[in-house]
Amino acid sequence: MTNEFDINGDIVEKPEILLKENDPQEKQEFYSLDKIKELKCQYNLIFGKRSNGKTYAVLYEGIKNYVQKGKQMAYLRRYREDFVGKRGQVLFNALVSSGAVKELTNGKWDNIKYMSSQWFLAKKDTKNPDKLITDSIPFCYGFSLGQMEHDKSTSYPDVTTVVFDEFISHL
Predict the structure, then answer these.
(1) Second label for 101, Cα 20 to 30 Å away, from 5, 50, 109, 122?
(2) Tens digits of per-residue pLDDT, 39-98?
(3) How far are the Cα atoms of 14, 39, 50, 57, 58 from residue 10, in angstroms, in the given order?
(4) Which of 29-43, 50-64, 100-114 holds the top average pLDDT?
């Protein structure tokens, strides 16, 4: 991949082009964090087209960071309704269905459970497949800008990655 630069001379990150598994002729773009991580910035802001894997990439990196270093992630949205209930439970579905959770945890966990604005690594109970056994510590916390007044004095010392997803409103 070659670097491209904007009018100010800053690097413009382009997603890597990967082939879809089911059709070698059809190309699909997926976002890669490789180039942005090389910059070693304290803060990274990612803009890009819809549905190219930006959220998947940063959530993957957050789970990887938790598994390898024990560091947690914060998932931030403008409104709490954007991640509670069903929306919270399905946030990590792509990582579960792709096998990424199982791969990153070396098979220890194969699922994710959402409870009370927290996400936990989980696995299906072998005795009761409808039940999930969860890790005792959440790897991710959910926050909304509208509720930050309630969390401003709470400490999260192991949170090292903050994902502010869908921060631009639709025009």
Answers:
(1) 50
(2) 888 887 777 777 677 888 989 999 999 999 999 999 887 666 666 777 778 989 999 999
(3) 13, 11, 22, 22, 22
(4) 100-114
Check if the beta carbon of residue 147 is closer than 8 Å to that of residue 79. Answer: no
3-state secondary structure of 128: coil
Pairwise CA distance, residues 117 & 1, whole Å: 38
Beta strand 159-164 with 72-77 is: parallel
What's the Cα-to-Cα distance from 8 to each of 4, 5, 45, 150, rounded to whole Å? 11, 8, 16, 40
Classify 159 as helix, strand or coil.
Answer: strand
Handedness of CA 36, 96, 159, 169 (dihedral sign): positive
* Tokens 């914060």 sit on residue: 74
